[in-house]
Amino acid sequence: MLSNIQTYPNADRARDTAHRHLEAAAAQGRRPVLLVESPTAVLHERKLLAQESIGFGICITTIKAWVQDLWELHGDGCSLVDPAARSILMAKLLKRQDGSLPATPGMTDMLVRCAQQALTRIDQPAQLAPNETAIVDILRDYARIIHEMGWLEPIEAMDILAASERLRPYAPVLFDMHPADLPCAECAFLEQLDTLAIIDGMELPAAAERDEELDSVQRMLFHRTAPIAPVAPTGAVRIGLAAGPTARNRLLFDIIANVANSHDGSGASIAVACKEPEALFSFCGPLLKQHGIRCELHARKRFADTDMGRALIDLAGLIESEKPDVLQAADYAYNPFAGIWHASAFRIDQLHRGNRLIEKDEVLSDLAGNADDMLKGIVSLIEEADYPIAFDTLQAFLDHRFAADAAYRTEQSRALAMAREACETAALLGEGLVSALQAIASRSMPITVETAAVTQRYVIFMDLQYASSLPPASVDVLVAADLNAPDYPVRADRDALQTLLEKWDFSQSDDPLRQARTAFYRAFESARTCVILQRVLNDSQASQVQPCTMFEEVLDCYRIDPTSYDDVNRTLGIPKSLEPFTIQAGEESLVRNATGRLPAKTAESELPAPGRISTSARGFIVLSQPRNQSSDGLDLSASQIESYLECPYQWFAKRRLKLEPLDEGFGPLERGLLIHDVLNSFYRRFQQEVQPKVADGTLAQAEVIMTETFRDEAYRHRYGKKRPGQRYAPIDAWEEQVRDSVLPHLVDYLEFETALLPSFTPLKMEWAYGDDSPFQYAGCNLCGRVDRIDVDAEGHAVVLDYKSSLSKDYRLRNPKQPDDAFRLPRKMQTLIYAKAVRDLLGYRVVGALYVNPITSEVQGAYDARVIGRQDIPFKTKGDADAGAVPFDAAASFDELVDRSEQLVAESMQHMAKGRIAPDPIGLEACRYCPVGVCPRRLEPRKR
User: Fold this and answer.
1) Number of H-type helices and E-type strands within the chain
2) Among 14, 41, 35, which residue's Cα sits nearest to residue 173?
3) Which candidate in 121, 294, 418, 535 could, as Cys together with 458 as Cys, close a disulfide (CB 3.0–4.6 Å)?
């Protein structure tokens, strides 16, 4: 902390004292220096000094710029380290260390800040934890490397400069900044130069022509005592309250437009300070332009948030990665600097995401091959590390494609220049493009955009920090937006660096409340006629949002007793005296909230009920397959029929609209494909080499064959010619472990297999039907495959369908329900297969079972007069009772099959008529349904 600090009641008094001090120093033959916070403040102070005719010979600058200039004049010839070089070196050293510290961007940032603030303190004695010792070791290595390269950290340069006699003639004055907000190194440097700190105490507003109410609020803000009466509202301070986040943009647009239009074209300047000025400018700018209002944007944007930055980061990441990241490839393809037409970007995104085994070269080839002619070689240039030509190519494309948008072109050119400079620095350190881009990803740059000038009315969008740098009473209206506690929290940020600096006795206790008050007060002071305070009452979850401290402190100026709530509207959280000057916006007007305007034509219409198809579209409810053009009826499969029976709306969404993810999966569905192939191949080989059916005496041989078969099929799924969507293909070691965990379950299943239908022999595996000629079922044309058909010596057949998960829904019926009427089972696939086997193969079907080889479970229907309960290892007696035929509503297995077909036929007639209204038969029907918003959903969506 500086020892020479002078505090004055307002900015005018503080500035006047600073100017007098500078004049006196110049008169004494010293070199006066005025140190301010930002380049914007530098320009403002230069203008004021010029107006007073005392600016000649006075240096006005920021601390960092002054140190840079001093070092160039009085340094020892070394260069100050480049910020990009600092970040690149830290990341490089962090990767080299023994793993004591995580090699993450956050740790790199912490090391960078530590080097900036305390590199000269790392050898101070202190009780350090092991990870702090590791930090010091890295910092020592960093210091050694930069010194070998002829570089110095600014903190080292400040120590050298402070000890130099050449700086004694300087008379620095710190203005507009509190010394407690400076890093200790800068504070110590300024202290050694006998710097005078002049501070605005914010007790009185600066002298300016402003509304009397604003003047009264400023006088009372932060300094109210009990006898002072509350401010009388006249409309100079107004409140804007949005019911929720979707109403926020529209409310702000209405506020800005109303204020601007109230000046009747005579000229109005409006400053809008918010958390994300660029986003608000994008929403309001085009709308305000239509009202004849000029708009400007003054903001800062991170390199990684620019289109050029994202394009380079994504492309470099794709090239450097071992495995292709298809999502990153999609981000790159949609970027304007990939030069890919959006339709092509969508197409290659679908192709990449649908193939989880796609190779990196294929991804890069697709991106390069679909690029604009001017960017055809950009991928290969980056691959070959020919960065200068790559950057020149991007610059040429930018200048050509965006010639008409000067602001956008300037922004992207700045980002490209940052990348070019970082690459040159990285090359000196033996690093490539990825390291260079990581070093500058979070660095920000100023951006300025404006719409065409139409009238004297104009609006400037900025953040609160920028607004705090505006001169007093320099704009007509200030709109201070987003005054919520989550947006402007008042809390001390204490992290690992702060703890380490305290151990070196090189830290300052910050005051977040003072910092927040200072920024808000100075922004408030910039208004001449009106200040509008805006916030959101509720968040996206409809939970109440608390106002920030500055918002409440302004409102307290209008309350008789800030400790009492008698004069407060508790619903809105504002004093009752401000109710007439409060603007509200609700979330009910969706179109207006989203666009800022009402639709050109409005009309009320009933919300269409889900599950209806127009008469003209009913003929397309199911598309005919080419092989069945000569046959009447719907072309379906057993699984489609089952899906429709579970819920017509789910069937339509999944089977007809194809509302499924684009990505090739690695889940239960794909695992089931592998299990089917393994069991099919296992039995074919087992029957050739051992005997027709697994028995107790052949378990050892079966286990060997199962293991070898699993390995062969797993290899085919991963490296064979199976198409995407038809394989279970792991892409990393963890997924391989998940896949291999299936084998022990299949080996255990073999013992279950010995007890399953011991008198039957697996005769057909993956039996196909309906391919050559359609199989008629329930008035539909069916084709499909049956996993397995077991037959005994008497010609009885049992249909088996492998499932990787089973539940009670796979039971034939509920044995506890009365059988007064025949009901369709919830799962119909095996009964449909049973009809096909009976009619096409001529067997007498006596069972239709679902078998889970993972858990060795079985469910389904069986003819209890032919198959004994001991022949099917049901897990529970209830499962056995549920599947036994006959029962009251079905006297035989054939009757069960036929009566089921009759009821299915009725449902298929409904399908043909286009009936797809949601009608789930149970919880399982909704569990995996892709329709998230359905009035008949029985439980929350689980995916």
Assistant:
1) 34, 26
2) 35
3) 294
CB 742 within 8 A of CB 727: no
DSSP string over 821-850 = S----S--HHHHHHHHHHHHH--EEEEEEE
Looking at the domain assignment, is residue 601 inside a domain? no
Residues 493 and 585 in one domain: yes
Distance of alpha carbon 364 from alpha carbon 371, whole angstroms: 11
Residues 6 or more apart whose CB falls under 8 angstroms from that of 743 comprise: 706, 707, 710
179 and 35, same domain (yes or no)? yes
Residues 6+ apart with CB under 8 A from 915: 611, 648
- CA-to-CA dists, residue 871 to 685, 732, 753, 798, angstroms: 24, 42, 11, 12
297, 461 Cβ separation under 8 angstroms: yes
CA of 301: how far to CAs of 415, 443, 602, 800, in Å?
Answer: 10, 8, 39, 62
Which residues constitute the domain of residue 702? 664-746
Which alpha helices (H) appear in 75-200, and where do they start and end? 83-96, 105-118, 130-148, 154-162, 184-192
Predicted confidence at residue 215, as pLDDT, reads 93
**d(Cα 887, Cα 889) in Å, to the nearest integer?**
6
- Single out the residue in 447, 474, 505 at which a domain terminates: 447
Are 548 and 220 a contacting pair, CB within 8 Å? no
- What pLDDT does 943 receive? 40
pLDDT of residue 503: 87
Pairing of strands 582-585, 237-242: parallel
Give Cα 472 to chain centroid, integer Å. 39
**pLDDT reported for residue 942:** 47
DSSP letters, 701-747, are HHHHHHHHHHHHHHHHHHHSSPPTTS-----SHHHHHHHHTHHHHHH
pLDDT along the chain (943 residues), means of 10: 87 91 91 92 89 86 95 92 94 90 92 93 89 93 95 94 91 91 90 92 88 93 81 95 95 92 72 95 91 90 96 96 92 96 94 92 95 94 95 96 92 96 94 94 91 78 93 94 94 84 83 91 94 95 94 93 85 93 91 77 68 70 63 84 92 85 89 95 96 94 97 95 92 94 96 96 94 88 94 96 92 82 92 96 96 96 94 94 92 95 94 88 83 77 45
User: Which 3-state string (H, E, C) describes 257-277?
Assistant: HHHHHCCCCCCCEEEEECCCH
**Surface-to-core class of residue 505, CB atoms within 10 Å of its CB (0-12 exposed, 13-18 middle, 19+ buried):** exposed
Same domain membership, residue 499 and residue 585: yes
Please give the Cα distance from 695 to 715 (Å, whole number). 28
- Please name which of 737, 811, 876, 273 lies closest in space to residue 548, comparing C-alpha atoms: 273
**Partner residues linked to 887 by β-bridges:** 890
pLDDT of 618 reads: 67
Domain tally, the chain:
6
